[in-house]
Design brief:
With 410 residues, the chain is of the alpha/beta class. The chain has three domains: 119 residues, Rossmann fold, CATH 3.40.50; 67 residues, Dna Ligase, domain 1 (2-Layer Sandwich), CATH 3.30.1490; 159 residues, 2-Layer Sandwich (D-amino Acid Aminotransferase, Chain A, domain 1), CATH 3.30.470. It has 16 helices and 16 strands. A seven-stranded mixed sheet has the order 14-13-10-11-12-15-16, with helices on both faces. Helix 1 runs parallel beside helix 3, helix 4 packs antiparallel against helix 6 and helix 6 packs across helix 7.
Length: 410
């Protein structure tokens, strides 16, 4: 019996007549993004079940986790696992994915899962605009937002004929599987010969039809900005603007390592236009880079789920998972005005990033040291929940060994 048929055969209603009012939450994933959700809800007495995914198990160590289970490997098994959790719970649960892949699974099965869960992920016809970078740029251009110059070669021969200005980057439009290319987020290339070599290498790691060749937007570390929001049908309910001052890897930033909340430097208006254009509902981070040539923000990515630094919002007065929980419950959310100058730091990934930048002469040593001693929200350690902080270094070491052994990159 298929997973969907099993869901129907175990008492799921034919349709959700009214939104489910959750009494607990299931967090898909166990990384530091998931840990932030666990703490946001658990501190307020919400029972949380964590589904441990891959080799990143930080959230599973939290004292606020009431139950946990392992994430199966295939999509059918994963859906069956979600159905089984919902059946056992009795009361409705909210579903919080913490990664692109799990959020995409929920989105593609939105209609079925909506019968069993209160969902924080929009259906696929909305979600896909943020998930696929090709569609993100199409959406941005339709909304009148500046996007990087990008080509989408059909194959190697097509790329050979492309007229490009170097440097450029190679990046995948989607990232369904973690590997060296996804770990780096993008590969910078300086000339045509290097481009063809890197394209051949990338084609062995991702579907060649999903590879994008994109201009490099010039700008220093202060040029990476983000607009994070809780939206409903494209209308922003709560938001915060941040500078992603340091990131890992340093040039293209798969993950932020040091972030500061700031006044809106002109990215709020284009971000809202993009969210309105796709009528997005849920939590989302919209990333920009200010082009030093023009001073204009350029749309790079959209992350349609909790993002790495979302816990900065708690200290800045915009606790995003909790606000979304209240919306799911049909309760009124408090008015929020984000506090500027709030900092967020993940020291274990920030330090190696900063060392590289100092060696390159792009980060003054004393400026880095002073940033460590300013008040900030810690990404992992919390006094009321210390075990994840104590487990972080051993967990990172184990994950590093596992991924290197698998040839996946870090």
């Amino acid at each position: 019996m298929s997973a969907k048929a099993e869901a129907r055969s175990h008492g799921a209603p034919a349709a959700a007549a009214t939104p489910l009012r959750p009494a607990g939450a299931v967090v898909l994933g166990s990384d530091y993004r998931a840990l932030g959700v666990v703490r946001s809800l658990g501190r307020r007495g919400v029972p949380v079940h964590v589904i441990v995914d891959r080799d990143d198990r930080l959230a599973a160590h939290s004292r606020y986790v009431q139950d946990k289970s392992e994430w199966p490997k295939s999509d059918d098994e994963r859906l069956e696992h979600l159905y089984a959790i919902a059946r056992r719970a009795g009361d409705p649960l909210a579903l919080f994915p913490s990664a692109d892949e799990t959020a995409a699974l929920v989105s593609r099965n939105h209609e079925t899962l909506l019968r069993l869960y209160a969902l924080t992920t929009p259906p696929w016809d909305v979600f896909r605009w943020a998930y696929d970078k090709r569609l993100t740029h199409e959406l941005g251009e339709r909304a009148g937002v500046t996007c990087p110059k990008t080509i989408y070669p059909r194959d190697r021969a097509d790329l050979e004929q492309a007229d490009l200005e170097f440097p450029v980057v190679i990046k995948p439009a989607t990232k369904p599987k973690f590997n060296r290319l996804v770990a780096a987020k993008a590969w910078r290339v300086e000339d045509h010969d290097e481009l063809m070599r890197r394209y051949d290498e990338a084609s062995g790691l991702a579907d060649p039809t999903t590879l994008m060749i994109q201009e490099v937007i010039p700008g220093g570390s202060g040029a990476n900005l983000a607009y994070a929001a809780l939206a409903e049908s494209g209308q922003v309910l709560h938001h915060i603007v941040a500078r992603r001052t340091r990131q890992y890897p340093p040039d293209f930033g798969r993950a932020s390592t040091f972030v500061e909340s700031i006044d809106d430097p002109g990215i709020g208006e284009p971000a809202r236009r993009v969210l309105e254009a796709c009528r997005f509902t849920g939590l989302i981070e919209v990333e920009f880079k200010v082009d030093e040539r023009s001073g204009r923000p350029v749309l790079l990515d959209m992350n349609p789920r909790v993002w790495g630094w979302h816990t900065l919002g708690r200290r800045a007065g915009v606790d995003f998972p909790w606000l979304q929980w209240l919306r799911l419950r049909g309760e009124e959310t408090p008015g929020t005005q984000p506090v500027t100058g709030v900092r967020w730091l993940r020291i274990t990934t920030d330090m190696p990033t900063a060392v590289k930048e100092i060696i390159r002469g792009r980060q003054p040593f004393w400026a880095y040291v002073s940033s460590l001693f300013r008040p900030h929200e810690r990404a992992i350690f919390a006094r009321d929940d210390p075990v994840p902080g104590l487990a972080e270094v051993p967990e990172l070491a184990r994950m590093l060994v596992t991924r290197l052994a698998a040839g996946e990159g870090v």
